[in-house]
Fold this sequence. Notes:
seven-stranded mixed β-sheet
Amino acid sequence: MDQKGISRAVIKRLPRYYRYLGELLEAGVERISSGELSERMKVTASQIRQDLNNFGGFGQQGYGYNVRHLHTEIAKILGLDRTHNMIIVGAGNLGQALANYASFERSGFKTVGLFDVNPVLKGVSVRGIEIRMTDELPEFIRTHNVEIAALTLPKTKALEMAKCLVDNGVKAIWNFALTDLNLILPKDVVVENVHLSESLMRLSYNLNTYSGEEHKK
Amino acid sequence: MDQKGISRAVIKRLPRYYRYLGELLEAGVERISSGELSERMKVTASQIRQDLNNFGGFGQQGYGYNVRHLHTEIAKILGLDRTHNMIIVGAGNLGQALANYASFERSGFKTVGLFDVNPVLKGVSVRGIEIRMTDELPEFIRTHNVEIAALTLPKTKALEMAKCLVDNGVKAIWNFALTDLNLILPKDVVVENVHLSESLMRLSYNLNTYSGEEHKK
DNA sequence: TAGATTGTTAATCGATTAACAATC
DNA sequence: TAGATTGTTAATCGATTAACAATC
């Protein structure tokens, strides 16, 4: 259950495997070989086999992989076989957008609370979740078994809030603020960054570089 | 101006350098050495020097890097020295959240239009931008010099819409839909994916793996 | 059994780090 | 000039791909 020393590159690819397997499952496909999957996903079959074998022998020689089984196993690896309670801290546009995203719930990420510092938002409901003030956070975290906090606050407030969350038992931060929380928080707190403006800059770089140019290869 | 063959890993780091340099600039720091910067950013000085030297010798022996100059140069590399017109296709929660994000504008990404298929949204304004119906897209793209389209539609509609956008001259897609557009679009169209649910799954994996465990090193 | 396809080892490729000569 | 720090080459490390023996 506890896999250590698996490279970040492998982990990054797992959700994509999971997605393709889900689609195959829906399409009623029972088995798939690494070769077939590699064609669909445009990666090498070798990579698929190497990646999966980090976690165990999910396939069978001469047969390939059972789609349903592999899908279930990857779900377990990613922790999608159980529910994770999540709160969203910062009920601005982005925070509310996340609260409205029903699809996270389907993967087991349940939004149990929505918080903000702005008193104007107090009591406003988003998809049935009432916005609370941040002074209620410590108690709420303890009483609601909160594991994950999505941080959708301006960078100026993010660091202090992150510390507060961690002090009160939050184990994972989904960080949308443009600051490197991981450099400041205890090492056992998991941080996943979504830095939208950096993503947009990479897009812009590629636009600069490839645009107008004939694509080689 | 046209850098070819620069690795994706380097590009991924550039926006972060840019951010740190911006902060130094604001703090009034004039010069910085790779060693000093490496300490702040928790990367090796070697990596910083290697990365920057892909684009030219921005430093000076015995002195280090001039913060303002380096900041400006990275901006140029990332294409932040000019304005990019962007539209947002899909005016749901996420689309509206992006439209409200003023900070993109500050980096030169200007939201000039907001589109949806839902007639209920027609004419609604978000931050002064009126929501239009998607049948107006082709003309709008041509007349407004649109380079970038943010795709914030459900996956089912994303592919068809992406094709339409590209047919009408969009060169870059900022893709929030959970589908691999890059596998289907022409190779000279730039795609940058923001797959939120995959990000959340990686967070969940790490939560599974590191939680409770004493951190080694 | 013969054919297919995995699991796994070995080879290659690319990215990171270390070292140091060049030079401001 | 002496000291500092870059730019760049060489060494190391890690990730990807290829190959093939194991096996269903």
